[in-house]
Every structure is written in structure tokens, then in C-alpha cells.
Amino acid sequence: MNRERGPYSNIIDKNKLKKEEFNTNWSSILFEKNAYQSFLDYLCSLKDQKYKDFANKLIPQVNNMIGIRLPILQEIAKQIAKGDYEGFLSHSNVQYFEEVMVHGYVIGKLSNIPIEDIQEFISYHVPKLDNWSTCDSFCSSLKITKKHPKEVFDFILPYAHSNNSYEIRFFIVMCLNYYINEEYVSIVDETLQSIISDEYYVNMAICWAYTTMFYKDSNRVLQFLNKLKKQLETEQNSRNRFILQKTISKICDSRKITAEEKTIVRSYHV
């Protein structure tokens, strides 16, 4: 799977949205209890079984999926963000995968309110993330980060050492989306190396982050790979071996990397 474009990119590119799928103006609705239930009923009416079967193969641990294409959820969120977004986001007891996605997309659409308010919405939403898809999509939607990099980084940094694996992944994916740059790459590298977890989706995110970092600062990543290699030569560690091998694999899978660079990277195999 080419994660540089994203797992749903082929679907988003090839499927056009139908106007009849948006026959409700969500920007004009006040989301008290009955209206929110109507929103859930509406989501259920959009079920696409073929898409659900496809998506469940990508996210097998999710058992509360309706089966709705992401562009549809994004359009619904865009409308809600123009209206009673506070009322909508106040409904915190979510039932469906798509419901979590829409909540995340709504937060991502908020740009004309204080960053402190957005951070509060983020803090309520992050505990709802329980799979890589809701996590990564939420991170990608938080474009406000580009306007407030320091405030957001200081806010997300504590998540790096959370006891919740998807909160840790939230920090990592936020970093690879917004903070692999000259100003932040050093602290991102330092923080990533301080994360110790046996969780697959945490460690895969670390590999993904170092692959992204390679495009910007290859020497730094080679130093990291060399450190892992030396550690493995003296002490066997399944986690370090996994991160080393997967990072090498992901870098070498990239079309952005030259053949010469791939040869150098492969030399760190143990």
C-alpha cells in the first residue's frame, strides 16, 4: 500500500459525489438531542456495503463502521462547521466510526476561533481515536497547525508519552504532517527516540515519520538507523529490529529516494 498518497486516495480520485447525497443543509441545524439523532439516522441511510467491505479489510479492528465514503463525510463536516458546531461536538458519546470521523473533520474546519478553543475541542476528541484511520485523518485535517505551530506543538507534546497507543500515534502523525522541518526536526527526532512502545501502530508510525524525515534530513535518519543497528549487534530487541527493518523497507519503497541512497540505507540491515 502506498501510504504517501493515503489508503483511500484511489477511491477519492475516482468517485464523484452525487448532489442527492447532500439533501440536508447541516449548517442551518441546531444540534439538540433529536437533531443529532437525525444526523445519525442520516449517516446510516448513506451506507455503502461494497465500500464497507473494502474499508473493513484496511481497518479490521473496527466493528462499528456504517460504510460511507470519506468525501461524503468531509462535505457533511464542512456544512456543520459553518453552523452549530459547538452543539454538534457536545455530543461526545459516539456510536459509529464515521461519527468519529465527522467530529474530527468538523474540528479541522474550525479556523476563525481562538486556537485555545480549538485545542479544547482537540483534547475532547483525541480519546475517541481507537484506530489508525480516525487518528491519521484527524491529524491531516488539522491544517490550523500551520498557522499556530508553536502553540500546537506545545499542546501535542505530552501525548508522546501517553499510556494510550493511539494518543501516542496522534503525536507522531501530527509531527510527520507538520513538524518535519528545520525548526522542529531536532526535537521531533529526540522525542521519537524517547517513545518506548510495543504497540504495532505506534511503531509503524515511528517508521513512517523517519521515512518522511529522510526526505528532509537523510543524515539524521542514517544516524538513527546506525544507532539501532549497533544496539542490535550487542543486544537482541524485537521492537528495535522491527523499527529498523520497517524503516529501511519504507524508505526503499519510496520513489523519491535515489538508487544510491537506497543502497546506503540497505547497508544498515542486521
TrEMBL record:
<dbReference type="InterPro" id="IPR016024">
    <property type="entry name" value="ARM-type_fold"/>
</dbReference>
<protein>
    <recommendedName>
        <fullName>DNA alkylation repair protein</fullName>
    </recommendedName>
</protein>
<feature type="coiled-coil region">
    <location>
        <begin position="215"/>
        <end position="245"/>
    </location>
</feature>
<dbReference type="InterPro" id="IPR014825">
    <property type="entry name" value="DNA_alkylation"/>
</dbReference>
<keyword id="KW-0175">Coiled coil</keyword>
<dbReference type="Pfam" id="PF08713">
    <property type="entry name" value="DNA_alkylation"/>
</dbReference>
